[in-house]
Amino acid sequence: MKNPYKQFRKTVVFNPAPAQKLPDEICGYIDYITPNRTELS
Predict the structure, then answer these.
(1) What is the rounded distance in angstroms from the CA atom of residue 13 to the CA atom of residue 3?
(2) Cα 20 → chain centroid
(3) Helix, strand, coil percentages for the chain (3-state, nearest 5)
(4) What is the model's pLDDT at position 41?
(5) Cβ atoms within 10 A of the Cβ of 35, count?
(6) What InterPro entries has UniProt attached to this entry (predicted)?
(7) DSSP letter assigned to residue 1
(8) Given this model, what pLDDT does residue 32 score?
(9) Sign of CA pseudo-dihedral 22, 24, 25, 30
């Protein structure tokens, strides 16, 4: 999967709060994940 944000040289930071089920495809777009302690468990 090609990440459309890379053509703009942007970094994608994802904050998963509140925790929820997300599609696996979204991982290809994320550069950094900033979970809280609750999302880690």
Answers:
(1) 14
(2) 12
(3) 35, 10, 55
(4) 65
(5) 13
(6) Ribokinase-like (IPR029056)
(7) -
(8) 92
(9) positive
The predicted pLDDT at position 37 comes to 79
pLDDT of the residue at 19: 78
In the block, residue with structure tokens 């944000």: 5
For the record, the structure tokens of 17 come out as 């709060």
Structure tokens at 33: 């994940």
Q: Which two tokens stand for residue 26?
A: 């979204």
Q: Return the residue matching tokens 């970094």.
A: 11
Rounded Cα distance, 2 and 13, in Å: 17
> Per residue in 1-41, pLDDT tens?
577 777 888 888 998 888 788 898 888 888 999 888 776 66
